[in-house]
Design a protein that fits this description.
198 residues; mainly alpha; Four Helix Bundle (Hemerythrin (Met), subunit A); 5 helices; elongated
């Protein structure tokens, strides 16, 4: 249960930061000629959503396979941990979509470099949190493998989940990269109007 508490606490902190960045604004700037590429962030959102669905499906299969085991309740609990990781991916997907839709970065609106910077930094922070979740889950998967020793079907599902966790980590790294790109764009927009933001 410690892992699931870690997941929830981390997501609360990041969601608060994202709400502050996407909802608030400071003084608006004139529309910039520097393009803001939101497509990679939209692609990230779609990938994270698909990866979450795959992880949830593997968790459901694990519960089904373990149903006849005397320790089935334990495996149901482990499946909930996997679903919590999938929830982290869904949160990344939802947050990335919100950042991609942020009106402060869209043509036709007053471009707000500080707001765009906040979006980028928050996306980076979310990616780092997701990687931390993946690392914690990897450690737990080894314990699960030890407990499933001799059960080839269950071990195969754990290996599938291990692959899901690696994909989760890749999504986290992609979020860091996309966030860094967005933050850099915000700084260049600010510099074009004689500002410096950090």
């Amino acid at each position: 249960m410690k892992f699931s508490v870690f997941v929830l606490a981390s997501l609360v902190l990041v969601s608060t930061a994202i709400a502050a960045a996407c909802g608030g604004s400071s003084s608006s700037q004139n529309a910039s000629q520097i393009p803001i590429d939101r497509e990679p962030i939209t692609v990230l959102a779609g990938a994270a959503e698909a990866d979450a669905q795959k992880m949830e499906a593997h968790a459901a299969t694990m519960v089904s396979l373990a149903a006849s085991r005397p320790d089935h309740a334990h495996w149901a609990s482990d499946a909930e941990l996997i679903k919590a990781s999938a929830g982290s991916l869904r949160f990344l997907a939802d947050s990335a979509r919100a950042i991609a839709r942020d009106p402060g970065s869209h043509p036709g609106n007053a471009v707000q470099p500080d707001r765009i910077l906040g979006d980028g930094l928050n996306l980076q922070g979310l990616g780092k949190t997701l990687i931390a979740h993946a690392d914690a889950m990897n450690t737990h998967l080894q314990t699960m493998r030890d407990q499933a020793a001799g059960d080839t079907a269950l071990l195969a599902r754990i290996d599938e989940t291990g692959a899901d966790v690696q994909t989760m980590k890749q999504d986290g790294q992609a979020a860091i990269t996309r966030g860094a790109e967005l933050a850099d764009t915000a700084r260049r927009i600010a510099a074009s109007t004689g500002q410096k933001i950090e």
